[in-house]
Automatic annotation (TrEMBL):
Belongs to the hexokinase family. Pfam families: Hexokinase_1, Hexokinase_2. CDD domains: ASKHA_NBD_HK. Residues 205-250, 281-357 form the Hexokinase C-terminal domain. Transmembrane segments: none annotated. Residues 10-179 form the Hexokinase N-terminal domain. Signal peptide: none annotated. The keyword ATP-binding applies. One of its GO terms (biological process) is mannose metabolic process. This is Hexokinase C-terminal domain-containing protein.
Length: 361
C-alpha cells in the first residue's frame, strides 16, 4: 500500500508478519534453524559476591560508558559514585585495556560489564562471559576478536597489577532484560532495544535469557527503499528487519525518498515530522511504518509468552523520543490483537548498570 509515495504495510500484511515472527520464535525454541539467532544466556543462580560486598559495574556502549560502585544489601541493589563519559574508538586491545585501566576500581574484587557488542555467551566457572564475535560501529577491537572478554580482562589485570579479579560479561539486551527484575518477576519481562539498532530478549526460564537478535528477522517483504538501504549497507542481506525499522536506517529511507535532502539523525527527523508539507508527511509515515513493524514483533512475543500482562523494559531514543513513536506502537499492538494496557512500556533508570549487577548477586 502506497500513501503519497511512501510504502506502508496493510493490517493484513502486518498480521502475517506477526504470525511468521511467532512461528520463527517457536521453531527456534525447538532447535530449528531460522533467521533469529535465538542465543541462550545462562544466568548463574548462586551469588558470586558476598552479602554487603561492594562491586563495580561498567557499561560500555557504542559511544558512551557508565560506571558505578554498587552493593547488594539484603537483595536490594544500591548504587553510588556513578559517572558517565564518551568512549574512545576501540581500534585494538591496547586501547581497550587502557580504557579498563583508567576506569576500574582497584579496591573491588568483582566487576560486571555490560558490553554492547556481538558476543557469544559462555559459562566460565560460575559466571557468564562472552566471546567477541565481531565489532560494531566504528570499533574494530583488533586482538580481541574470538577472545573471551572477561577472561582477557582478568589476565590483563593480573599481569599488569598482580591482582586477582573476577569479571562477568553480558551484552546489552541481556542486561536490559535483567534490569526488569528491579520491578517485576522474570516470567513477564521483555527487553526491547529500539534505537540505533533493534533487538528483543526475554527469560526462557528462571536462569536463561534469550537474545533473539530480532533485527535479523527476514520473513517479510522489504520496501523498495529498504532494498536500496540494504544494498548500500556494509552487510547486504543481513539484518533486513533492522534496516526497515532502526533509527540509523530510517533517516536513510527519508533521504532516499526525498532527493536533495540530508537528514542525519532521528532527532532531526522528528523535528521535520512536527512541521508541514511533504517533508513532514514522509517523515511521519516513516516513523509510523517503523512503529507498525516493531509492533509485529512485540505482538508475536506477547502471544509466545502466553502471559496476560507483560512488562517491556524499553531502551532507545527512537522508541522514547521519536515522533509519536511509542503511542503508535501501542495503537498497532491493539490492532494486532494485544489488549490495551497488557504490554506496559517502562524506562528503567540506570538499566545499563542495574542489569549487569544481576550477573553477580
Amino acid at each position: 500500500m502506497i500513501q503519497n509515495g511512501v510504502e506502508m504495510y496493510t493490517l493484513d500484511e502486518l498480521q502475517q508478519i506477526r504470525d511468521r515472527f511467532l512461528k520463527e520464535l517457536t521453531d527456534s525454541a525447538s532447535g530449528r534453524k531460522t533467521s533469529l539467532l535465538f542465543i541462550p544466556n545462562t544466568i548463574p543462580q548462586r551469588p558470586i559476591i558476598a552479602e554487603n560486598e561492594e562491586f563495580q559495574v561498567i557499561s560500555i556502549g557504542g559511544s558512551h560508558m557508565k560506571k558505578a560502585r554498587m552493593i547488594n544489601v539484603r537483595g536490594t541493589i544500591e548504587i553510588y559514585n556513578k559517572t558517565e563519559e564518551k568512549v574512545p574508538i576501540f581500534k585494538d586491545k591496547d586501547i581497550f585495556f587502557a580504557f579498563i585501566d583508567r576506569h576500574i576500581d582497584h579496591s573491588i574484587k568483582h566487576l560486571a560489564i555490560n558490553f554492547a557488542q556481538a558476543i557469544q555467551p559462555v559459562i566460565r566457572g560460575s559466571k557468564l562471559d562472552g566471546i567477541l564475535i565481531h565489532a560494531s560501529k566504528e570499533h574494530s577491537f583488533d586482538g580481541l576478536l574470538e577472545k573471551i572478554i572477561g577472561e582477557q580482562i582478568e589476565r590483563h589485570i593480573k599481569s599488569k597489577y598482580n591482582k586477582d579479579i573476577v569479571v562477568a560479561v553480558a551484552n546489552d539486551i541481556v542486561c536490559l532484560v535483567l534490569s526488569g527484575l528491579q520491578m517485576t518477576r522474570y516470567e513477564v519481562i521483555i527487553g526491547g532495544i529500539v534505537g540505533t539498532g533493534v533487538n528483543f530478549g526475554f527469560f526462557l526460564d528462571s536462569n536463561t535469557i534469550i537474545n533473539i537478535e530480532s533485527g535479523n528477522f527476514d520473513k517479510f517483504e522489504q520496501t523498495s527503499t529498504g532494498k536500496t538501504v540494504d544494498k548500500d549497507s556494509n552487510k547486504p542481506g543481513e539484518f533486513i528487519f533492522e534496516k526497515e525499522t532502526a533509527g540509523r536506517y530510517i533517516v536513510q529511507h527519508y533521504n532516499t525518498l526525498l532527493e536533495g535532502t540530508h537528514c542525519a539523525t532521528t532527532e532531526a527527523l522528528s523535528q521535520v515530522a512536527q512541521g508541514e508539507g511533504r517533508e513532514a508527511y514522509v517523515a511521519q509515515k516513516l516513523f509510523e511504518r517503523s512503529a507498525s513493524l516493531i509492533a509485529t514483533q512485540m505482538a508475536g512475543l506477547y502471544h509466545y509468552k502466553k502471559q496476560k500482562n507483560l512488562v517491556c523494559a524499553m531502551e532507545g531514543s527512537l522508541f522514547w523520543k521519536g515522533w509519536n513513536y511509542s503511542n503508535m506502537v501501542r495503537d498497532y499492538l491493539q490492532k494486532l490483537g494485544v489488549p490495551a494496557g497488557n504490554m506496559q512500556f517502562v524506562d528503567i533508570e540506570d538499566n545499563s548498570l542495574f542489569g549487569p549487577a544481576r550477573l553477580l548477586i
